[in-house]
Design goal:
Blueprint (H helix, E strand, L loop, with lengths): L1 H19 L3 H12 L2 H23 L5 H24 L7 E5 L2 E5 L1 H18 L13 H15 L2 H9 L6 H30 L5 H21 L5 H20 L4
Antiparallel strand pairs: 1-2
């Protein structure tokens, strides 16, 4: 039953998040948490996320904007290493507060609250007509890369911040998705290189068959998402990402994910 639920979640989420460039890890981690301890759930999700991005790299990587890759991607890689290192040093950081809802305890951490507020800010810039013409210039891309990479290494939530910057960079929908995939893969490699020191201890090796099936399901979802890409407009993509950013930010700020 756990294999069926996780595989179905990976497949459906991979389709949904192919267009946004983020969300697979954010949505899939809570599904893994249902069946596994949190450290193992993060490790399992990280591996599925990485190999799914590798597959998407072959599908759409050629559409990536090379100048954005340099300005955004390189700072993001170094920031991801630093964020992941910080995570290993502050594993015992206390939450701001906790509460119970439907007999389930939730905790709100400082990191997730900060990311939540940033995501809401960027989402409103896509939904409020006054901000529609705003474009983030290429010279500001390194700041976005540092922000996305650091929080990616620190909490794994790098995709939403990356998408919030890139969607305002004036890219075509193909270039947006291709650039996002390439940068996401590089950041995944950076943070997994740091996290790998804990993989053996968490029990990842014992669950390789599950990882393989979940990864294959996510790849099928990404393949289908790529087929549907031609039917999606840039305007739809912007609005879809803005709404998804708000939903993710609410869930993060409330401690649900």
């Amino acid at each position: 039953m756990d294999i069926l639920i996780i595989s179905l979640a990976a497949f459906l989420t991979a389709i949904l998040t192919f267009f946004s460039g983020f969300g697979l890890g954010t949505i899939l981690t809570p599904v893994f948490v249902i069946f596994f301890p949190i450290d193992l759930a993060i490790a399992l999700t990280g591996v599925v996320h990485f190999f799914n991005n590798i597959f998407k790299l072959f599908l759409v990587g050629r559409d990536a904007d090379k100048s954005i890759l340099i300005r955004f991607g390189i700072p993001a890689i170094f920031a991801a290493f630093f964020g992941a290192w910080i995570l290993l040093q502050i594993t015992d950081l206390q939450p701001l507060f906790s509460y119970q809802l439907f007999n389930t305890a939730f905790e709100v951490t400082p990191i997730k609250l900060i990311i939540s507020l940033l995501l809401i800010l960027f989402a409103l810039m896509d939904l409020i007509p006054l901000f529609e013409r705003i474009r983030i210039e290429k010279r500001h891309m390194p700041f976005g890369g540092i922000l996305s990479g650091f929080f990616g290494g620190l909490s794994g939530h790098q995709g939403a911040l990356r998408a919030a910057f890139l969607i305002k960079a004036g890219l075509t929908k193909e270039a947006f998705i291709g650039t996002s995939v390439v940068i996401g893969t590089l950041i995944d490699f950076s943070r997994l290189a740091v996290y790998s020191t804990r993989f053996l201890e968490s029990g990842l090796i014992d669950n390789l068959p599950l990882v393989a099936i979940a990864t294959f399901s996510a790849i099928l979802g990404a393949f289908l998402g790529n087929k549907l890409l031609k039917k999606v407009t840039l305007k739809f993509l912007q609005q879809f990402i803005a709404i998804l950013l708000i939903l993710i930010s609410i869930a993060l700020g409330a401690g649900w994910i």
